Amino acid sequence: MPRNPPIRRLGAFAVAAAIIAPFATAASTPAPNDLPSVNFSKMGRVVFGGEFAGLDWFTSQSPFAVRAADNGTIVSYSATADTLVMRADDGTVTPIGATNDGGRISSMCWSNDGILYVGGEFNQFGGINANSVVSYSPSQAKFSAMGTGIAGPVETLYCDDADHDVWAGGFFSAPESLGNVGRWSTETSAWAAVPFGGLNGRVRAISSSLDGGSLYFGGEFTTQFADNSNTTARTMASVSIAPPNTITTGDSGYLVPVTIPAAASEFGGLHINAAPATNQDQYNNADSIVCPNTGPWLARDASVATVNILGYSYLTGSGIRMSNGLVGGRGTTSFTVTTLPDNTVLTLKYTDPVTREIKTCSKNCPLSVDPNVHAQDFLFEGGSRALTGFNIVLDSWQGAGAGVNYIQLLSNGAYASAVSSNNQGFCGPSNSSIHTIGDWDNANAPSNISGTEQGYMSSTVPVNSPSDTSITLYPWVGSAGFYKIYLIIPGCNNIGDCASRTTVDVAIFPTEGGTPYTATINQRVTEDTEVLIYDGLVDASNTTFNPTIRVALPNDPAKVGSSNYVVVAAGVQMQLTGLSTGQESSPGSSSSVSGGASGSQTGAPAPVTTVVGQSTVVVTPTGTQPLTTVIGGSTVIITPTATLASSASSVTSSGSIIPAPTSSGVRTAFGVYEYVRSSRNLNAINALLPNQTETGVTRLGFSLDVNNNQTAARDFQVTTIVPADNLVLVGGSFKTRDWSNIASVDKDSGIITPLAGQGLNGAVAAAVTVGQYVYVGGQFTSTVNGGDQLNRLARYDVGGKKWEAVEEGVDGPVTDIVPFKDGLLIVGNFSNVLASNGSTPTGGYALYNTSTSKWFNSGIVYGTATAAAGTDTNAYFGGRIRGASRNAVNGVASLSSKDGIGHISNLEGVAFSNQGSAPAPTNPTRRSLTARWLSRIHQGLVERQAAAQAAPYSEEPVVAPASLAGTYWTNSSNANTMVTIMGGNFSQGTGDNLISGVAFQSNGALTGPPNPVSGVVRALEVHKDMLYIGGSGVSVTGKGSSFLALNLKTNSWKEPMPPTLSAGSNTTVNVNAIKAQIGADIIIVGGNFAQAGDLPCPVICQWNAAKTQWTRVGNNAPSAGEVKSLAFNNNSTLVAGGSFVIGGKNVYAARYTFNDSGANGAWEPLDGLPGPVQSIVMNDHNASNIFAAGFDASTAKPYLQHWNGGAWTEQNSSLLMDGTSIENLAFVPLSKEHTARGSIENNRMLMATGNVFLAGQGNVSSALYDGSQWYPYLVGSSPTGDMGTGSSLFWSESNFSFSLSSHPYLARGLVVLVAMAIATGLILLIVLLILLVAFCFRRQDRKRRPAQDMYEKDEARSEVSSTHNLIHSHVQTALEQSFAPAQYAPGHHPGAAMAAAGAAGVGAGAYAQHRAAESSDSHYLDAVEYSQPVEAEEYGAAGSWEGSDEGRETVMRYDFCGPELQSGELSMKAGQRVIVLDDEQSDEWWYARDPATGRQGVVPATYVL
Questions:
Q1: What are residue 228's phi and psi, to 5 degrees?
Q2: Residue 708's pLDDT is what?
Q3: InterPro entries, per this entry (predicted)?
Q4: DSSP codes, 476-516
Q5: Same-domain status, 644 and 609
Q6: In a designed cystine with 50, which of 411, 1032, 1267, 1286 is the match (CB 3.0 to 4.6 A)?
Q7: Rounded distance, CA 1039 to CA 1057, Å?
Q8: What is the mean pLDDT of residues 141-157?
Q9: How many other β-carbons are positioned within 10 Å of the β-carbon of residue 1463?
Q10: What is the pTM of this model?
């Protein structure tokens, strides 16, 4: 009686090992309990691929489910209105309510009383009437109107829990408000009065100060402040800055002494010599001569002394201040001054200390010795002079000798060098300073004075990428007065940069509270030039203000003759021209008053005299238009901005404009308002606010107002205000010369500080403070000055004063950011979050963990969100949202089982972008939306049937990212690491890191082939470490196309590639399926092609990997058409599905059997299908149990049919609605049995993947079929919220069992313990049985004496028989391996213990396992034949186990081979000769030898004839 092959089972320890090493994935989503329970764990690693952005389990609430009438209780998404959604803690996104059609949501806030407030522009919300604002109670699931609402759009809401208010801002009229601001009391549930009336423009932001004492408002409004009580107001009267008891001459007391640079030697080599000096150490330091309060210096007794101050950089001075060195009755009585380098004796003008008359002198100028006179001023006759130094001879003295306390060079009025080090005084710090934006370098060049140099600053800016480049000079001005301000420009001839010189914009801020002036200057001057840029009243410097001159590269510079612009500046010179009484109007006023001591001056700017090269022009800035003058190729433009703006300006120490009182006594602030809660009786909308209510934020508003008046931009606005420490950060859409779109202001002092990089290069929409960071979102991509990519989302380190990227940002504008749990909820008009390893689709919202600085797997919504709010558990956001998915998987997802429940998760490391490996379709369409292509196929089929030509498939474009095929490979070179291989239309990374078309995922990382694959990959197969790739338009540059081969071990393309597949005219090559024949080197390729290399081989062809050649499959192989799907029955029978021609007739499915002899067989059409096949699969590898899915050739209706070996039968296709397209069929095991129906067993179901439209249930991407009923299963969704398409299902366990005998629900640790206990118990039981048998044998041996020759082969053997020794040896081995600590290590498979026991004739039944066959659409690891010679010591050499010739020869009935074979087992194939050496030790395992190779080992007895 023939015996059936025994079922080979995985040993208990192997099961435990498999459970210990699960497939590691990210956070997952469990399946609902009402879905069929698929046991994915049996299948190993399971991946589901297709064209989708999100993937979910089907529920009755799925967006594509068919719903019964809900009477309005079920909320759905709207394509024509904004929808409010809630994201629960488990990631589920649920629509709560929607506006009326065309309505919008723009703001929301969460109140601590458990109410959500929503604002926008709508008249209905959640089914109730509500005007622009509504409240929602989650506990009651109820919307409520807020009184009569608000008439107009609400742009912002702030929940003021401390005062039990909800503040609304926008552009509206509201109850108890004068406009644009509303206040709802949560205590009285009524509108309350706004304590400051309201605001006169659109309000876009409301927030609170950190201490809660103030509310900040931002937007597009203005507030006005009266100046009659301004505590900062002061008169600009000239005040002498000369030291007390100084005898001044003319206006010398108002002149700032020239700063002797501390770093003078860097550019000028400054030397101070005084000789002969006294020998008294405390009085002989020459440096003290130029530093007040460090002297005096005394000459040698009774000696004429010379003081020499010399440098090689020129200084400009108008006189000197001499302080006598009166020590012990001595002192200088006369002196003489000689200038350098011309050695001219100067004529000086001075005031007689006694008569107060103005006198002159040249030699022996008198110096007072009156101890009550601290110093005397001597002015140069003829005005200021440029000099490099001077000699002062102390001609005469009184007492023992001459002496000097100090000598100072007096400026023309004030001076600031553009070189920062030159503003650092030799005698101590100077109050003049500079501030630069951009890259600036110190340099020096020859000056107009022979042999001298001047320092200057230079900035080089590429013409093709101009940036904000400026230098701002802050000269310290000692006294208010009338000044001429000159910009000093070094000549380009001496520097050699004339071709790069261009125009610059110059802005002058002369007074605190005065009007800014601008001019455009051409810097292409050949010689050193002083350009007059201002003539008028200038305020004195104080602790918060310096007159400011800003030189900047304009937006549209003059063209240059090189690739770079060069901007230069040496400094600014201020010449005092008159004194101020303090009664003059500020610049820009029309009134005029008497001037100071030097004559009459007007408050308006005087005519401007400008010197360019050797030419002079006088410009009088009258009227309202700029005046342009061209002189010798140089252009000077003076813009009288005082006539262009109503508000005046000044500058803070940071260089930002702060308006000052105008002639009308009113100052205007734009865009910001701080309401201090302690203030009372205010009217901010149409009345003047008292100056006492001005704050630091108000000063920023003054600056914004000036810049708003000077810009033509219409979107000048503030959209967010957030406090951070002592600062307030204000963001929006605005630009000044020093900062753009965001700035910080000290809330107390009002000092405005540009943020790093001078702000951001795009509008800011939202900001929130978290710890030391302020997170900012908007439309920017970097800072104004460039640098790191910020991509619309960034954080500012307040303490470190630097910008940092938030991961890699997002790919669209951000509209709102709110705190949520341990991070941030971010919403906007974006689709993907960006990270260093690629992008992840999230739709219009994202979650960011501020602790880990990583994105959180938030799922995906389809559409854009505009506003958000967060609670302790749930997140709320709203906008034009069309749908959502809990799992953002971007074309590929992992399916797994845990405790009997299915889970969806994304593959770690996979972050495919929207850019595919194939060119994007011009007008992509969705199969889920139309069945028109089926009609076209039907029409083409009817037209061609008469000619027996197969109808071509009409391929829909594959929209990236899409994963269409997959397989697995074990990397034996890397600890047997399992590698997931995916193919499709996708890409990830850029440049050298680009992964395209084919990707490998392992250990949480994604890699790719050495060269990116182009085209759409539709088929993959691994055979003996070689990956075969096919698809549509598939190619690798320089390697091959259509059908590719990659060596996985070396990660290198096969050389040479298989000859290319080609198609006929007007068609393209499609490779749809690739299958390897098990146990052979044959690769079957199916698709749409005409020949392989030079071989005509249409539709289906085989590649012989060993012979590296193409051959046809069968004598009557298909002659035309296309194969869509292939399935193998182990290694002998191949089934093909598609639409092709065999023997002159149309065929949709056919079967081919391979002959053992290798001779070609014949294709057998499986007639009876109604139309083309899209997918075909065998049940349990049974060629007489086949399922096929396709569409009817006559009606284009979808079908599913079953082949029972003789005929096809319909499988409830009536539930498949028009438009259904099933692209993949596969049988999956169940965790719980179902009632067996039709031809499908109770332990499995058929999974149909594609676009499946089930009547009465809904549309899904994958459905299960039990032989009678359909079950919606997986729902994919596209980035637009439409139905997504499933394409592939592949798994790693090639021969999993459908058996329900093993319990899948135990915890892994418990399974391990149970397995160990069972194995140990079985082994102990077996040992007892063996010992009992041995005892019986011993009793028999004692009764009868064995033959003497039985022991002649080995006289030293013990009396125990060879059988007993062998049994004892293998039992001991099994026990040792059962308890070995390395039982799970590679190479120590736990099944080896059972193999050892099996060799002894025990436990073989538990050790052997038949690997159940599965779907042809799966992709497996190739079986690796394993056998090895048996070591002599392993089995001994006695008895019938000895390899003698006494065995009998027979033939193997079945294949006994594969990777699961253990040590000691003999690999054999069906039909091979085998010599049985021992069939007595066990009824189930026989010891045998392969006569062809001499290998020995055990084989299952039932596998042998």
A1: -70, -15
A2: 84
A3: Gal_Oxase/kelch_b-propeller, Kelch-typ_b-propeller, Quino_amine_DH_bsu, Rax2-like_C, Rax2-like_second, Rax2-like_third, SH3-like_dom_sf, SH3_domain
A4: --SS-EEEEEEEEE--HHHHT-GGGB-EEEEEEE-STTB--
A5: yes
A6: 1286
A7: 7
A8: 96
A9: 18
A10: 0.59
